[in-house]
Write a structure and sequence with these properties.
four-stranded antiparallel sheet, six-stranded antiparallel barrel, mainly beta, 2 domains, 2 helices, Thrombin, subunit H, Pnp Oxidase, Chain A
Length: about 200
């Protein structure tokens, strides 16, 4: 066994539940959303969702990363069996996430939304699909890049809605925005927002 038992449990849980995983290489600025196909002691088989015109830049990468729930895996090279991407597992493959709180992942079909008040006009309200959420933050999916989601932008009174009902309200700030290719080949932007927790909460 090349990695620890807990990391294998995370992988097998993602495999059983068909949870989204996020794959990237340092040769391209795009993160690819995918699913695990198979988990072995030494390799992960990942559904190949990389479009042909991104393959060349991806293969130029010297470092690869795979995010599965709260665990990040790294590799210096990947291969393919002609269908799936093959991600090797080694003793030093696991990089634990720094966030200590449990994260919940949602599909595009689930009705979990984030309502945002535009801080530039304090009138326009935008509703974006939530990709995942923890006690410390949320990541949302938007169809295009925007200055509104630049790193450091602060939002007051974010509302997290589940089936139209308010689940949580909080202030927050953008900590990252990255290009994301979804499994259908649509290029989106994933925006990470950290909640600003007030004293006593």
């Amino acid at each position: 066994m090349s990695i620890d038992k807990n990391s294998y449990e995370v992988l097998n849980d993602a495999l059983r539940s068909k949870s989204s995983v996020f794959f990237s290489g340092d040769g391209t600025d795009i993160t690819f959303q995918s699913e695990l196909v198979k988990v072995t002691d030494d390799f992960l088989h990942i559904e190949n969702t990389v479009l042909p015109h991104y393959i060349r830049d991806l293969l130029k990468s010297k470092n690869f990363s795979l995010m599965v729930q709260m665990v990040r895996f790294k590799a210096n090279k990947i291969s393919t069996n002609g269908k799936d991407l093959i991600f090797p597992l080694e003793e030093d493959s696991v990089i634990q996430e720094t966030r200590g709180s449990e994260r919940f992942i949602f599909s595009a079909e689930e009705r979990v939304m984030c309502e945002i008040l535009n801080p530039y006009d304090n009138q326009t309200r935008l509703t974006k699909s939530v990709m995942d959420m923890s006690a410390t933050g949320v990541s949302i999916r938007t169809a295009y890049a925007s200055m509104l989601f630049s790193t450091g932008t602060k939002f007051s009174n974010l509302k997290i809605l589940i089936d139209g009902e308010i689940y949580r309200e909080a202030d927050g700030a953008v900590v990252y925005a990255r290009k994301l290719l979804d499994p259908k080949g649509h290029l989106k932007t994933q925006v990470g927002i950290k909640f600003e927790v007030t004293d006593g909460l």
